[in-house]
Amino acid sequence: MSGGSRIQRTLDWLRPPPRIVDWSIFTAVTIAATTGIVSFLGVTPSWTPVFWIHRVVGLTLVVLLGFKLARVRYRITNTDQWQPTTALSVLTALVAFGTIGTGVAWVFGFNPEIPYFHFLSVHVGLGLTLFALMVVHQRSRFRPPRRVDFDRRRTSMQYSVMLVAGALTYRGQEAINNLLNTPGSERRLTGSRREAGTGNGSFPPTSWVADDPDRIDLSEWSLTITGAVERPRQLPYDELSPETREEALLDCTSGWYTVQEWRGVRVDDVLDAVGPETDAAYVRFVSVTGYRWSLPIDEARDALLATHVGDEPLRHGHGRPLRLVAPDRRGFQWVKWIDRVEVRHHGDPAQWLVTLISGFTDRD
Ligand SMILES: Nc1nc2c(c(=O)[nH]1)N[C@H]1C(S)=C(S)[C@@H](COP(=O)(O)O)O[C@H]1N2
Ligand SMILES: [Mo]
User: Fold this and answer.
1) What is the pLDDT of residues 39-65, one digit of tens each?
2) Which residues line ligand 1 (CB under 6 A)?
3) Range 200-357 classified under CATH 3.90.420.10
4) The pTM is what?
5) For the chain, N or C: smaller number of CB within 10 Å?
6) How far is CA 177 from the centre of its chain?
7) Options 1.20.950, 3.40.50, 1.10.3210, 1.10.860; which CATH number does 3-191 get?
8) Is 264 within 8 Å of 322 (Cβ atoms)?
């Protein structure tokens, strides 16, 4: 039958030329990696577009990879076509499907217990690996698209169809999830799933592997408040008066969140006691481990230095004696085991170095 079936013809029409497919995969993976990394900051609904782009681009990638694999399949199945770069290409394809597969599995509520990692962090790890492999792969094979590849109407039509199909697929998934009432239907906008309950035992202590201090002896601990302040101070534990209670949501990039009532000292009160200089702009919270994060001073004033969660003293794993509660910030910014608060004139770009690789966990 010449021309094949109607579906076949439609697919052929929708398939962009090879160089554009390759270029689009490169672009889509780059966008997915970028939105994935940027989404690590998102907690509040204003970040919804970032999560949506990530999901829709991820699903569009499925179609693009399908086109690509249909084209290059013979290079893998015909052993006499093998080249030194074939292994790398196969690995890249496997990591690509692993990344998409773990993302889709997560959306449907799949969350197996695995050693050391949370399942969602496997998706993050595969995604970062994919980006790196793709850059290497492109260097051996990449041909930039040429003008002849573009037929403006057709190309924009092809992309509209793919993106709309991606968005509809994601919407359809929501409907199926809700209908079947899978655990995947209970995700926040960030994709995180709820850890229900109150107090220390109801959510997992989550830290970097290397960030694992010894238990802190309260009689040897004190809080130093220093930097751009008029009267630096050092407060022993029993001079803190942890009387402020506040409900706040902790959302970790490894895919869980919890809502707790925290109790502690308002940063505002701590700052008033030391008198920040008038041009002070940031407050840096530093852990006994060296882990740290800074907040703009006005936001910091609204944050809490917590000693308690759900009316229990914080357990070691959750940052005893003192941890930051920074509403509307992602979990990794909620520094644990704080013993130093520094008022500063500038932000602290180096803090990113310590916090880029989230998700190694330390469960008790
Ligand atoms: N000092 C320090 N603080 C830290 C971390 C860490 O590794 N070291 N992990 C952060 C991360 S990634 C999260 S999600 C929260 C988790 O808090 P929890 O362990 O009480 O659940 O703590 C944050 N604070
Ligand atoms: Mo986290």
Assistant:
1) 999 999 999 999 999 999 999 999 999
2) 203-208, 211, 252, 287, 289, 291, 317-319, 331-332, 334-337, 358
3) yes
4) 0.89
5) N
6) 22
7) 1.20.950
8) yes
